[in-house]
Amino acid sequence: MTACLFCQIVARQSPADIEYEDDEALAFRDIYPKAPVHLLIIPKRHIESVMALSPEDAAVVGRLVLVAQRIGKAKGFAERGYRLAINCGPEGGQDVYHLHLHVLGGRSLTWPPG
Ligand code: 5GP
Ligand code: ZN
Hints:
Helix content is about 25%, strand content about 20%. By secondary structure, the chain is an alpha+beta fold. The chain has a 5-stranded antiparallel β-sheet, covered by helices on one side. Strand 2 (about 25-30) and strand 3 form a beta hairpin. It binds guanosine-5'-monophosphate (5GP) and zinc ion. Zinc ion (ZN) binds next to helix 1.
């Protein structure tokens, strides 16, 4: 069994609330949500982080963003907006070293609040 938690979710060796899947990408609910909607969109293929990307990965990264757009529309956030975030490396706050795009929505994320 792979040591990577998100590869385990892709392989259905670990449970997750999966909300979207296609041949290259998977989206599931974050276990510790920081907003009413907090999903993680990942490439099915293991890529460690943004720092590990190569030019050949451009299409899959684009796919993740398009999946986020699709989810944003499906959740009714097209007008009000939402946040996409990728944490990179230790000081960027990356805890899981399988590339993932956070989708946060359902509350205002502006700063200062309001
Ligand atoms: P990072 O800090 O690497 O950008 O984000 C990792 C995210 O994965 C965190 O928001 C964390 O809550 C989430 N997470 C960690 N372990 C699990 C898990 O086992 N299942 C799910 N669904 N999310 C997880
Ligand atoms: Zn992985």
